[in-house]
Amino acid sequence: MVRIRSGVAVAGFLATAIATVGMLTAQAADAPLRHRSTAHDGRATPAGAASPTALPGGSGQGPRVVYSLGRHHVWLVDAHEHVLRGYDVQAPGVSPATGTHRVFARAAGNAVLFASTDGVNVGFTGDPEISTSAIREAPSDAAVLWQHAPMGSLVVVVP
C-alpha cells in the first residue's frame, strides 16, 4: 500500500486551488469591460433634468480628473469647466480616499497613479493585467486620460 504524507496531499490541494483561481482570474480579465463612454460637448444639462453622468457639484475647479466612488464614473474637465469626456469604470479592490490628489506616477502609456491607500498605490489603467488597486477603464478612455493627466495633475475623488 502506498502512503501519501498529509503535507504532500495538502500541497496538491493547494496547487489545484491556486490553478483554479488563476484560471478564473484569466477568464475575468478577458471578459469585456462594461462601460459607457460618452464625449460631452460642454453644454449644461437643462434645469430640472438630472443626468446620471452630470459632473458632481463640489468637485473642484480648473483642469482635473473627477472620479466618483459611488457612480464608478470618471470626468475629464478642462480649464473652462467643460467636461471633455465622461465614462464608466470598473472599481478597484482598494479605493482611494475622497478629496483632491495629484498624479505622482505614470507608466506604460496607460497607467496614471494618484493616491495611496494603506501603502497600496491606486490609479487608472486600461491594462487588464494590472493589480486590483487599478481603476480599470477601456483602452480608448485610458489613452485620453493619459493625455489629459500629466504628472502633477489634479484628481478629485468624490463619494
Describe the secondary-structure layout.
Blueprint: H1 6-30, E1 37-39, E2 64-68, E3 73-77, E4 83-88, E5 99-102, E6 105-107, E7 111-117, E8 120-125, E9 134-136, H2 139-148, E10 154-158
Can you put this structure into words, describing what you see?
By secondary structure, the protein is an alpha+beta fold. The protein folds into two domains: 1-31; 37-42 and 60-158, L,D-transpeptidase catalytic domain-like (Beta Barrel), CATH 2.40.440.10. The chain has helices at residues 6-30, 139-148; strands spanning 37-39, 64-68, 73-77, 83-88, 99-102, 105-107, 111-117, 120-125, 134-136, 154-158.
Brief summary of the model shown:
This is L,D-transpeptidase catalytic domain. The chain has two domains: 1-31; 37-42 and 60-158, L,D-transpeptidase catalytic domain-like. The chain is 22% helix and 30% strand.
Radius of gyration: 20 Å
Average of the residue pLDDT scores: 76
CATH architecture of the largest domain: Beta Barrel
Number of helices: 2
Widest sheet: strand order?
A: 1-4-3-2-10-5
CATH topology (fold) name of the largest domain? L,D-transpeptidase catalytic domain-like
Query: H/E series, N to C?
Result: HEEEEEEEEEHE
Global geometry: globular
* Category by helix and strand content: alpha+beta
Major β-sheet annotation? 6 strands, mixed
Instruction: Tell me the domain tally.
Output: 2
The total count of strands amounts to: 10
Task: Using brief descriptors, characterize the structure shown.
single chain, 159 residues, alpha+beta, L,D-transpeptidase catalytic domain-like, 2 domains, 6-stranded mixed beta sheet, 4-stranded mixed beta sheet, 2 helices, 10 strands
